Amino acid sequence: MSKQWKHYAWIIVIGWLIYWPISFFIFGIKNDILTDYFPTRFFMSESLHAGYIPWWNPYVNFGIPQYAEMNSSYWSPITWLIAAIPGYSIYTIQLEVIFYIILGGLGVFQLGKTYSWNQLIKLMAAVTYMGMGFFTSHIQHLNWISPTAFLPWCIWALHQLVFLKSKKNIIVSALIFYLFISSSHPGFIIGGFYFFTVLLIYFIYLKNQQSDEKNLKIAQRILLFSALLGVLLAGLLYSYVEVLSHITHSTKPDLGINFNTTTIQSWLSFLLPSITNKNQSFFMNDISLRNCYLGITVLLFLIVGFWVNFRKQAFWYLIGIFFLYLSSDLPLVDTLKNITPLVSYVRLSASFRVFALISFIIIGFNQLQDYTKRPEKYYFTLKWVSNFWMAILSICLVFAVYKISKLNELDQLIANANSLKSIFDHVGFYTFLLISSLTSLVFLFYILQFIKKKQWNYLLFLCILDMGQSVILQLPYTGVGNSSPQQLQAMINSSPKGIPIPTLQNLEENNLGNAKITQTIGHWSYYNKQVGTLERASQPIRFQSEFEIFSDSSLNKLAKKPFVYFEITNEKSILPKIIEFNPNKITVEINNIPAGALTILYKQYPHWKITSNQRDISFGNKSSIFYSFDFPTVEKQIVKLEFNPSWVKFFQTLNLLILVCCGVYIIYTPKTS
Fold this sequence. Notes:
By secondary structure, the protein is α+β, with helices and mostly antiparallel strands. It has helices at 2-18, 20-23, 32-49, 77-84, 90-114, 119-131, 133-137, 142-163, 167-182, 186-210, 215-244, 280-283, 296-308, 314-326, 333-339, 353-373, 379-407, 409-415, 420-426, 429-452, 456-478, 485-492, 507-510, 515-521, 546-549, 552-558, 646-668; strands at residues 56-57, 64-65, 564-567, 573-574, 577-582, 585-593, 596-603, 608-612, 615-616, 626-631, 634-643. Helices cover 57% and strands 8% of the residues. The strands form three sheets. Strands 5-6-11-8-9 form a five-stranded antiparallel β-sheet, with no helix packed on it. The protein has a four-stranded antiparallel β-sheet with strand order 4-3-7-10, with no helix packed on it. The chain has a two-stranded antiparallel sheet with strand order 1-2. It is globular and about 95 Å long. 46% of the residues are buried. The mean pLDDT is 92.
């Protein structure tokens, strides 16, 4: 056991070190993770620390149901633990990213036990997974990073579920899959459904080949697993089904756009990872959707194994190739997506490549493990593949030198080397081709030497260097920015603390914030603790009503209004008094008013209960965007809007009880149970 923990410690240390710009807080993370993912998690922290459950988020585009926001991982226990205990800050979200990457590495190490890899191969596999191009290119996409961390654990859990007779395994498997789904972008859930369904059938087939256990027994375990997982996911599914009729993501995207795929040009990153940092016109997709790098060791044995040992690894080759194809822009992919249920709703099909990459990692290290036992079987194929590979890299190297000299890339780089940011901005495509070709040649040469001499410790060290250099060369483009965590946190600290009662000022004043904050950490309306904005914050989930809310005619009308007002005539309005405010409730008082209408600028959504002077009132105007109520002349009105998603409350309470009971059972049940 102590030796096992030593290996876990090494994985943690290696993962921490290869991502040192993030883990040591040298640079701050950037892009979507700050502008799209952080704000809703920050709100959860502020709400919980103020003593409120964050069901409704009033600060995002006139309010959204936080529990149904598909990018906030609301139903993930990890999100709640971070939000409730330390709270979300730049430091905690950077640590969360590192946590997921290391967790993925530990998962692959654990998965290696299933395939009887030796300890050094398991360590190499863990390092490869942590440093692979998918992680480095998606640092900014937190709900892509988190399911990728749980993916190897899910494969391991599914194998345990089929091959081992244990109640404890059923519970552990259900919990792992719940963590995968509750932290996932919807594309991972849809892709995972097909991946794990096929994998389950494959594992059952292998089990039938190896033992005479009746399929009925396996089916019983799968049924219990599915039932427990279904109960845990009931709240998440309820939330998603509820919100689909209100948002634009319920419609199919334009599948003809290859910008959202991992184009076939991007497959060059298997061989030359850092070239994906530049040349948008060549790759034809977003920079984050390109990198597929798995290291030289995996790629070498992936290719060699195809010729030497295909039959034993046929399943993983086929499923890997299928998901790589599904993530691409190749012919007939769109047809396949349209005939496969739900797949055509996935806007970023490049997410499917993660299922291909983990399949290729399993193949690569299965083949390496086989090589350690029967090296003579691989000698001939290994020789011609490596010679051919070296020839290709040499050609790339010569071509890169030629293009650099012709385009004066080096001169431009030297002329603009006045800051670190300027250096990275001016490194050209062919300079990266030169770097990738040269480093790959060196690594390939030494990897072949260590493989022939069976110097596995040196091979592990080279694997760490290989993945480490790939991470460092890509992070400035996809992971970290020019601002330090201290500078980013200073921006966040400018937000008022807790959940204060908003000031009843005109909406046009709500937009008066620091432009740099909006550009760097998300729209100022996320942080100013004021309800309503005249600019739509670029939240990934767009409500259908927002097209009307943020139309010119609507904004012209709202600019001179606060988010709560009592309108006597079209020209005249008075300000009510807010006597209570929290994320799920607002109470206003109006005194000595003539006949008129009270308007509260929350977008319409189910579960709002409305009372006036402690009497329930109904909201009849369903065609209105916001909540507005007509009142006769009256001396005093106290109007309360309370958000009460009773089913969500029920499912959250049920989840908490199940998670606690499962945790107690796992801890206090012996392994032999």
